[in-house]
Amino acid sequence: MAVGVTRTYVGSIRNHRQVCDGLDSLGDSASKIWNVARWTADRIWNATGKIPDEGSLKSYMKNQSCWKDLNAQSSQKAIEELSDAFQSWFDLRQKDDTANPPGYRKHGDTRPKSTITFKEDGFKHDPENNRVRLSKGSNLKEYWSDFLLCKYQTRPDVDLGEVNQVQNVRAVWNGDEWELHFVCKVELETNDSVGGGVAGIDLGITNIATVAFPAEYVLYPGNSLKQDKHYFTRAEYDTEGENGPSKKSMWARRKLTERETHFYHVLTDAIITECVERDVGTLAVSWPEDVRDSDWGKTGNKKLHSWAFDRIYQYLDYKGEERGVEVLKENEWDTSKTCSRCGDDTKTNRKHRGLYVCSSCALVGNADCNGAENMRQKITPSPHGEDRSNGCVSQPSTYLFDRESGTFQSREQVVS
């Protein structure tokens, strides 16, 4: 069975020297549009106590000269990004009144190079010759048909001529040079369900994921991710310039984002692969309903809002669809305090440092494993006789992220 999915493919620009000045101008213009719209929103906020909505900002900005620096759809996309940034700030400030609103895109007296998005009217793609034509705004054209012609190269296994549709193209400054991101609609053949087994997954902050398979529990700790956040965040702040982020600071920020993305992709690949190998056709994922509205204190809220549970679910969902594993989102209410063996829901059963001790049936085990098993039982109320003894719950397998190979391996493999 074929399913339609969205994929983003990165292409390096082969004629970078010829087009970099033009892309620099477009990136600078995108930042300028952002800054003018940000200044306008700030002025209206001070006067009325409200932020103008996306439609109002677009209507106002259309009369500004910088609007015509870019293709109309590209200018609109810059406003949409600003509106999304304000919405994220609104959501965060409900729990953290010290949260800062989206700022201006300025480094001292200069503007950074913003990403430019070219929608349907802003580009013309020639996949046979690996070329894409990018539109300029009327202000930047030397003549009416002026445009940027970029020659690109993707990975050897990517053929953009075979995709159903290139929805948009983004020119992205990666810190060293411009590159092209092609957002495509593609059809993938999916496998039929791989088996009748059911697994449950508990998402967390210390153990990023804990999976209850029919015959085993597996922990995926986030130690590597935590170390990266500590190192690169410190590098970012230690190199902050007087006039905004320095090059080293921007490098640290970009590097952390890249490592986080790689970590989550590898994690979800590993989980779905384990499901396929264990004949698990259904995976129940814990979903912390309304968790963003919780108040964990100043420090806790920062951890809470950086918790990527929704991102992990999305990755699991589309990877599972491709390989025949149905991924279900299930409310995790009471799964952390309820005993997976007898159902006792005494709050004090969950002890410190992830220890779970049932006051009714004397089950002793890892609290995350207990939660994952409860998620599994939401789909399979009767465990079909699988071993759920103290030994099984308290001694899970641990898969660690190996930096050298960039994959998850069992603790024994990493040690050896």
Q: How would you explain this protein's 3D organization?
A:
The protein has 416 residues and is of the alpha+beta class. It has two domains: 2-189, no CATH class; 197-415, no CATH class. The protein is 38% helix and 25% strand. The chain has helices spanning 16-48, 54-61, 72-93, 223-238, 247-277, 297-305, 309-323, 367-379, 390-394, 411-415; strands spanning 2-13, 116-118, 123-126, 131-135, 147-153, 165-173, 178-189, 197-203, 207-212, 217-221, 240-241, 244-245, 280-287, 326-331, 355-357, 364-366, 397-402, 407-410. The strands form four sheets. A seven-stranded antiparallel sheet has the order 2-6-7-1-5-4-3. The chain has a seven-stranded mixed sheet with strand order 14-13-8-9-10-17-18. α1 (16-48) crosses α3 (72-93). The longest helix has 33 residues, at 16-48. The radius of gyration is 25 Å and the shape is globular. The two termini are 42 Å apart.
